[in-house]
Amino acid sequence: AADKIRLIPQDFFAELCEQIIQHLNHKIPGVNTAELCQRIQTSGVDINIGDLAKIANTLSFLFSTAARNNLSTEELITTLGSGVSTLPKHAVQVIRHVWNEQGKAIALSEDAGNMATVGQFVDMKWKLGVAMSSDTCRSLKYPYVTVTLTVADPSGQITDKSFEMTIPQFKNFFRQFKEMASVLETV
């Protein structure tokens, strides 16, 4: 990961660290690595989303472990320095600054060891479509609903999950949501 971190400009690396800290503090549902990767690539850096996601997971593990062990800024930096591959100087500076400014908040906001082990729902979008025809069937007129769920996995990576439903499936889906809403109103 250290080799890939060298590629990331300091301002983008700082933004990534800030988003991870905010996620660990439960202020945001996750880190949108796809959007951040696109911005980094637009700035002329050749990095792919898989590498950026690995870096985000590594930093998330680093910060949550440091919080769980209640490390001071100096203890964290010393621990980082004893690693097999050394981080670039700009990355260490950013980690020092972010941990110094916001690290204690992770330790204070519920136990860092009890982080959620399931994903978190962020957003949902849907659209209604009609398949008019295909090369094998001249007249389909088949309505369907496409649903896109935006979910943050436990590490904070934000991903979109899409699926299609027939109208009867969508009506069942809608009925189940109404049942959930009525149960929630009684709580």
UniProtKB/TrEMBL annotation:
Pfam families: COMM_domain. It comes from Panurus biarmicus (Bearded tit). Residues 120-187 form the COMM domain. Scaffold protein in the commander complex that is essential for endosomal recycling of transmembrane cargos; the commander complex is composed of the CCC subcomplex and the retriever subcomplex. May modulate activity of cullin-RING E3 ubiquitin ligase (CRL) complexes. Down-regulates activation of NF-kappa-B. Inhibits TNF-induced NFKB1 activation. Belongs to the COMM domain-containing protein 6 family. This is COMM domain-containing protein 6. GO terms for molecular function: NF-kappaB binding. It comes from the Eukaryota. InterPro entries: COMM (IPR017920), COMMD4/6/7/8 (IPR047155). The lineage of its organism: Eukaryota, Metazoa, Chordata, Craniata, Vertebrata.
